[in-house]
Each structure stands twice: as C-alpha cells, then as structure tokens.
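Students often ask what a holo structure prediction actually looks like on paper. The answer is less mysterious than it sounds. You provide the chain, you provide the ligand, and the output is a string of discrete structure tokens encoding the 3D arrangement of the protein together with zinc ion.
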Amino acid sequence: MLKVDRIQVGIVLDHIRAGNGLRIFEELGLAGREYPVALLMNVPSTKMGRKDMIKVSGALDLDLTKLALLDAGITVNYIEGGQVVRKVKPGLPERVVGLIRCKNPRCITSTESYSPSIFILVDREEKRYKCFYCGEYVRV
Ligand SMILES: [Zn+2]
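The corresponding structure tokens follow.
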C-alpha cells in the first residue's frame, strides 16, 4: 500500500472512479498550486476494487456541483489537524446552471450566448439531465 505524507490541513477527494483522477486533477487546475498536491491512481479499495484519490494541502475553494458532474460517486474529506473533520458526498445536483452545454443547435442557449444553460436532473441512476429550455437530454 502506497504511503503519502499525512495532510495537516487540506482536502482529500476519495472514491474517484479509477481512471478519472487525472481528468479531475486537470479540471480543478491543481498542477498550478504552490502547496503540495498528490494524485493517487489505482489505489486498492474494498468497495470499488480500484479507485483514484487526490490529496490537496492548504485551503481550496471547491465547486461541489462541478465536482459531482465530473464524478458522482466522489467523497470530499476536509482535513484539519491531520484528522478528517467533515465528509461530504456531493452527489448529482437537481439543477445545474451554466455548467452543461446543450447539444441542440436550435436551443436558445446555443443561439443566444447570454442565456445560461439550465439543466434539470431526470434520472439519477442514468445520470441524465434535461434542458430546461428545449427538453434535450444529456448524460454527464
Ligand atoms: Zn436546450
């Protein structure tokens, strides 16, 4: 089992689907941070078989909605004094504004750039959303 220095203050993103860690690492812009960050891939997990993890020391503003869209199964652990003080499982939000792009070229959000997209969750299992304006379905 791989050992990584314990974080005193920071965030550990756990239960990332194996193979998805690098994408999340890049989407969150973690390579540009001045504090230590670690991306762990293919960590053995009793629940998932294998998983990815990301450890970030220092404060970090996380967009939990964006994170949940990138990986709905993720767990966010907030670390203080070397201990987990809070665990959050964001899950897919019921309503997403501005983060998903509608694929329908005739949709108002495609033609009018000032209209932010609004998507409503219609199927949590299938990770399916519906465009509020035109009814187009997308899977995240
Ligand atoms: Zn639409």
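Strands lie at 10-17, 37-45, 49-57, 75-80, 83-88, 95-97, 118-123, 128-131, 137-139.
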